[in-house]
Amino acid sequence: MEAQRQMETYTFGPEQIRQLMIADVIKALAKNWRKVIEGAFSVICDVGEYRKCVKEFKIPLLNTLFDTLHALCNLLLALPKDLNQYFNREELMSLDPSIRLNFIQLRTDFKTARQKINLK
């Protein structure tokens, strides 16, 4: 009974999970991102590992958040000719285009890459 009360104390609603997780994960990862391909590979591998761990919690919202974060990381690795396709992926359409553009700006080729994007 006491353990159940303690567990209830630490239960978050979907909105709290969303706010805490996405903000904290992005902040933590962004501190270590490098604006080179090797850094982008490292980030996407880390996010992939986090996704595996999160799936074990079986919380759909959490899975969705990490799927979205993974799709954002793909913006760092996409070839310039494929960038528009990745930018307008279904997983990212719920995000404001300015958030997606912030990830594009992390690319070393962001000035030319931005010109290839069709904002939807």
TrEMBL record:
GO terms for biological process: exocytosis; Golgi to plasma membrane transport. Transmembrane segments: none annotated. One of its GO terms (cellular component) is exocyst. Signal peptide: none annotated. Coiled coil: none annotated. Residues 37-115 form the Exocyst complex component Sec10-like alpha-helical bundle domain. This is Exocyst complex component Sec10-like alpha-helical bundle domain-containing protein. The lineage of its organism: Eukaryota, Metazoa, Ecdysozoa, Arthropoda, Hexapoda.
